[in-house]
Amino acid sequence: MQHCRFGTKSSQGHWLLVSRGDGSLGFVPDTENNIRLKANHMRIATSRVADTDETNSSETKRTTVLPMKSKAWARARHGALSGLRLGFGTLALSMLATFAGSPTATSAAEPSGEILIGLVTKTEVNPYFVKLRQAATAEAEAHGAKLLARFGKFDGDNEGQVAAIENFISAGVKGILITPSNSTGVLGAVKKARDKGILVIGLDTATDPADAVDATLATDNFQAGVLQGQYARKALGDKTPKLAMLDGTPGGTVDAQRHDGFLKGFGIKEGDPAIVGKQNTHGALDEGQTAMENLLTAHPEINVVYTINEPAAEGAYAAIKKAGKQKDIVLTSIDGGRLGVQYVKDGKIAATVMQFPKKMAVRGVDYVIDFVKTGKKPSGFIDTGAELITDKPFSDLPSKDTKFGVENCWG
What domains does the chain contain, in order, with CATH numbers? Predict the structure, then answer.
């Protein structure tokens, strides 16, 4: 075994290039234990290789010593060692650069070719967005792509969504799927992404203007609100309506579309005296309960309730039950999650309008994959459908029962 020691230290100290008995090469640290493996070793880069057997005692451990057989042998050996020195020296310098942290071709990261897709939802824990994220993740994996998911800390966390988009741009994503909390608040970040050649698709919620993104995959939320309002009005029968409206988040297009659609379906306009009270809930259970408690305290005559989504409806039901008014109030909602459908089945909610977030997520991912492969972009509004779910139907209003709801719900 022969050893070649570098004359220049890396951050790890000296290293020995070892010529093993089987002809292979390897490196070992230049320690006393390894030095003692052989007395013969060649110092590379800082010392010439000795070509005689005359050595200085202080250099005994620093210079190769080979026995002299003849002048011819010495000349042959010297030529061989010169070539070996050049080869080892080149290899040593290359390895030293690596040890010292210098960039080399072999240490540079190779691009994996993996397609990165960003998903930004309004919140993390809302079952609707959980299902959206799960479906998008599964579809991305099926295509060999990777989904990066971010979300707002709460419904209305515009700054958090903007930061997520900017992070995705830096990460090199090919497409961004977003459910904007504020339909105008993310426009600047969306423009930055599109200017970088990133495909941006709205899911569930449209931007304002709608063409700020390349396309939007969503429920027709105005029409969903119409279905909700039509059912609520029929379920109320001949009673004079005393309507409470539990809205979502100010500035959201979905919130405005569902609210306006409900009024149209119910057959009234904004400002109608039938509306006895309104409060924002940000689509949250706790805020829904608090809002309903406040409204019932101020207007105990309430007999019909609009809710922006099922978490708000769940909170509203808790307040209604606490007040002992379950049989006096028609409670309606939109979403079509597992819990919402169960509430309809149990008679807690009269009806809900089912959405299909899985369709949005799957199609969104598919559009990004297709864009990367072909350059083709989707455009405009793409309706993913809605169904009224109730076990107390009306013959002149199309609906599905909770059996269908259970089989097709999300969450």
Answer: 2-99 (no CATH), 116-219+360-378 (3.40.50.2300), 222-354+386-408 (3.40.50.2300)
